[in-house]
């Protein structure tokens, strides 16, 4: 059921004729520290609305030296009433170019939690064909432990670049109609993609309410609960052997189609990165996730008794 992730995925050296990747999908603080001047670093921090925290203000207060801020709640589809759907290719290119990044740069993204919202930024870049990207394992807390250089205050202006989206990787994105059709197939006893739900287990079963008012908890028919904190420990992603054991214990087959979902597409991206590392290739994130799904009148929702 499980296979070793190929070295071409875990530690790519050549991603395209122009994208050179010397890091794997996860980079250690020491690795980043030794190559800080040769990569573009982004703070991709985000917090739940009820946390009453401002990630941009925290970025101004303390950040990795030379980093820019990637606003998950601003670099998004502003025409949607959903929290942070993928932006259009043009809007993504414009926003990223203004951060001083080109399609040829290697990007390392981090967050203040360790391994959390940075994974959403990782998946977003990949959705727009930018494979040369890594997540800092352990995030800002791990960076501070190795005495990585920090900055405070307003960042120095960067020279904008012209960013060109090479292609949109639709294979790693799923929408409502796709997951609804999948849920119906599974409910009818037919084969379907494995849907992995990263929300806390009590929300998955329906025992606990959703944090968004008026939204039903529960889960899609046939979906599998893999709470995101099962693949992260002390702010760092588990090593590959431990990741395999987690997904194997859930009955997940990485050779078959997998869709990850969560509340709004943030922690689903953590599962995406974890599964990618252990060899899953037929892998996608449901962009709208439960916030979109449970708000639909025709959604199929299961609550455990």
Automatic annotation (TrEMBL):
<dbReference type="GO" id="GO:0004792">
    <property type="term" value="F:thiosulfate-cyanide sulfurtransferase activity"/>
</dbReference>
<feature type="domain" description="Rhodanese">
    <location>
        <begin position="51"/>
        <end position="152"/>
    </location>
</feature>
<feature type="domain" description="Rhodanese">
    <location>
        <begin position="189"/>
        <end position="302"/>
    </location>
</feature>
<keyword id="KW-0808">Transferase</keyword>
<dbReference type="InterPro" id="IPR001763">
    <property type="entry name" value="Rhodanese-like_dom"/>
</dbReference>
<dbReference type="InterPro" id="IPR036873">
    <property type="entry name" value="Rhodanese-like_dom_sf"/>
</dbReference>
<dbReference type="GO" id="GO:0005739">
    <property type="term" value="C:mitochondrion"/>
</dbReference>
<dbReference type="Pfam" id="PF00581">
    <property type="entry name" value="Rhodanese"/>
</dbReference>
<protein>
    <recommendedName>
        <fullName>Rhodanese domain-containing protein</fullName>
    </recommendedName>
</protein>
<dbReference type="InterPro" id="IPR045078">
    <property type="entry name" value="TST/MPST-like"/>
</dbReference>
<keyword id="KW-0677">Repeat</keyword>
